[in-house]
Amino acid sequence: MNSAFLAWILRMPLIKRWALMHAVKNENVAEHSHQVAVIAHLLAVIRNTYFKGTLNAEKAATIALYHEVSETKLQDINHVTKYHNPDLTREFKKIEEMAELECLKTLPVELQPIFKPLLVQKEVDPEYKALVKAADLISAYLKACDELRFQNSEFSHVKTRLEKMLMEFRNTMPEVDYFLTIFQEKCFVSVDQLAE
């Protein structure tokens, strides 16, 4: 059997994020997934180094790489639309799970048990899922801050909403607070300032 799995993954650069909003810098799902993987890896390393964690940082990064796999079939769904009301959210989650399972089934049957806890969000270990969720929010938050840096006020409400969500993570996951304290500021300087 030929597998369509990689073909679906390779379509990630075609899927635009923030599709309903004007963006100074366009972003696609592949770029976002890469950033979330880097952030999740850093968060896991920070937890293990400073806060007595025992996570596998490489596993965290891998889960993050696949966390938007449903969007290869569904596109990026606007947050406000997806979470407009609980009934709608439940239906979106069902559709996303169907897309994740469809993607999983494109793999050879012997590989499916290995990939299921990476691709299917219901199957992801809760500790890793929370870490990847924090990384996902951080990535979106940094995007909103970057857009505002270029005077794109379209992202002002996004930044406010994400700050509130991140505050909960900062209070319950010290690695998130550490990450933002150490890394956030330099994300918005010029390339010349990075070299200083």
TrEMBL record:
Q: Which Gene3D superfamilies match?
A: Hypothetical protein af1432
Q: Which SMART domains match?
A: HDc
Specify the superkingdom. Answer: Bacteria
Q: Which SUPFAM superfamilies match?
A: HD-domain/PDEase-like
Please report a single Pfam family linked to this protein. Answer: YfbR-like
Q: Matching InterPro entries, A to Z? A: HD/PDEase_dom
All copies of domain HD/PDEase, residue ranges: 25-150
Q: What class of enzyme is it?
A: hydrolase
Query: GO terms for molecular function, please?
Result: 5'-nucleotidase activity
Record EC number: 3.1.3.5
List keywords of the entry alphabetically.
Answer: Hydrolase
According to UniProt, the name of this protein is 5'-nucleotidase
Task: Name the gene that codes for it.
Answer: yfbR
